[in-house]
Amino acid sequence: MPALTKEEMEKLLAKYKTQLEVELTPESEEVQSIGVIRTREYSEFKQQYLPRHMSIYEKACNQAEKLFKISPDKKKAAALQESIEICHLNITPAGSYTLALVFPLIYIVLGVLVSFILTQGGIFFPAFFLITGAILIGPLGKAPHFMANGWRMKASNQMVLSVFYVVTYMRHTSNLELAIDFAAEHLSPPLSLDFKRIIWNIETEKYSSVKESLDAYLDSWRKWNMEFIESMQLIEGSLLEGNNDARVAMLDKSLDVILEETYEKMLHYAHGLKAPMTMLHMLGIILPILGLVILPLVVSFMEGVAWYHLAALYNVILPASVFYLGKQILASRPTGYGSVDISKNPALKKFRNFRLKLGPQEILINPIYVSIFVAVTCLFIAFLPLIFHILMPGFDIITTVGGEIKTINEYQHEEAKFYLFGYKESLTPEKGIIGPFGLGAALLSVFMPLSLGLAVGIYYKTRTNNVLKIRDRTKKLEAEFASALFQLGNRLGDGFPAEIAFSKVANTIPDTYSGQFFGLVSSNIVRLGMSVEHAIFDPQRGAILEYPSDLIETSMKVLVESAKKGPLIAAQALINVSRYIKQMHSVEERLKDLMADTISSMKSQIKFLTPVISGIVIGITSMVTTILGKLGGQLQTLQAETSAASAGAGGAAAGLTTLFGDGMPTFYFQIIVGFYVVQIVYILTLLVNGIENGFDKLSEEYEVGTNMTRSTILYCLLSLGVMLLFNMIAGNIVGSGIS
Hints:
Blueprint: H1 6-24, H2 29-49, H3 52-67, H4 74-86, H5 93-119, H6 124-141, H7 143-156, H8 159-172, H9 176-186, H10 191-203, H11 210-219, H12 226-238, H13 244-271, H14 274-301, H15 307-331, E1 354-358, E2 361-365, H16 367-382, H17 384-391, E3 395-400, E4 405-409, E5 416-419, E6 424-425, E7 433-434, H18 439-444, H19 447-493, H20 498-508, H21 513-528, H22 532-537, H23 550-563, H24 567-643, H25 647-660, H26 666-693, H27 697-735
Antiparallel strand pairs: 1-2, 3-4, 3-5, 6-7
Helix pairs in contact: 1-2, 2-10, 3-5, 4-7, 5-6, 8-9, 8-12, 8-13, 8-23, 8-24, 9-10, 10-11, 11-12, 12-13, 13-24, 14-15, 14-24, 15-26, 16-19, 19-20, 19-21, 19-24, 19-26, 19-27, 20-21, 23-24, 24-25, 24-26, 24-27, 26-27
């Protein structure tokens, strides 16, 4: 069994010396303060990386518990406590349960009161707040479980990597505590937080040994990820092996176990994904779009149906249902291989902005300002029909049947074929002037969903585009890094020192990313006189700055640490790291192949089917609304002409006029559908990324930026074209009847 290096021994001795001093000298304020600082590390780390929405939820639960403490039954309390501990929340089951009951009650009371005041006795909004408030009780009561599921998905996405880090370290240094500390240093949240808590629980004396602390943590995964537990138990078992070959074999077996069982679980997940995805497709895409086709008729022939009723259905209830179902699908996803989010790397901060070069200087512009400018500009254009109606009532621009363009200062004109704004008097006198029904207003309304889709798309795409390019370059290095490490290990095994081995491998593979990386290390050694460690990790000139990858950083740290114990141990360590990387890459490719059919189908919905079908439906809706509106106007004319000649005919015409109703302006209808398209594209993008990549925030933001921009523009262009075409057809159909 390899002995601890002097540096590792000093690290352990210093740690336990501090702990003993804290225990043995309670009268010393200075020593006690050092102990407090050490035990505070985990808390500070938690505050830094715990998601903001979870912190807000913590405060809300604690405040609710102070005001009205309602305790759940023992079974619910135990389940809630388990979820609370998994996601590191500082709340109690009573606080969570109290918030789940109190918040919906407050929401219902305030919503109903405001609705009665604003709508003057209308029942739709009070009923809406009552029903949605009652529905909220269920999800809020399960909020800790949802957060725990999300935490589990993020953490399980890193489990193969965590086992890899622990095994890699323990191959050359058989110390479990240092190995877990090494893994916590290189993993990103949330699993790094879990690993830090394992160490923290020892320092705060909650557990007496690292094995006891680790076993307690593993027990929380017993229902969810047995392969992780089996792998970590094999790692623990390797500590009891006196024979070094048997110890190393057990470590190798631990990584094989999690790789093989991960593939098997993902296979079952892929096979079981078809039914929920079909349900999601029907609920989120097919049924709502089929409903859009008949909605113009519903609005025209049913009195009392207004645009806000449709907005409540299409922009609140349906997206919330699709989002909830999507979260349920993601919650059952097994361990995966999420890419590391390098976007928080301080060296890459400048790449998350618009970069303008003015001579030697470079100006960085936060994309949020550009997004706000785009959103405000598009909103101003979309609101033009409402602005003109408020500032210049009656003003409009029309095209006549003969093709002339005129300006008018009245709401209706007998020669008009198309209106720019199209306000008119309601058939119900108390409603007064309603609209805008004009073709121009319908076309301008397209800028409303464009404001949201473009603003969000530009923001996320700008923040991630350049960073993702750097990560893709790093991924290419990772893909070929295994063979390069194998060559480096062989050169070390031949007796070459690390300084020369880097140069030899770089000369062998000069046209690869690995060759460039090794060449940069060699250049730092030769030209700047750096040691191997500084040539790789120097904060100013280190080669790792060009390739910010935790996997590469880990491999190089293993090289630096194992080289202290001799070139042969370093060679063997690198060869084994190379083998591990190959295995992980192989399983990852097989998993992607399993998910290919589902992913490609959903991507086609996001990028093409949803915006195209919705755009066509809007065109049909616009045509139907135009035809019904013009028929209503013609029937009003018919009623006026026949009322003097025949009371019976006039009564029949009046009945038909009432039958058609006012209808809904395409202006509002398009805004509702446009926002629905933007919402569905966003939700489906999150789902696709979650299925394909697990919790990969950088990839998620990039896909959101790309899909929101592309799909929104496609929908808007198609809506404009189809509305123009179908309205011209509608104008020709009913135009001959206009006197």
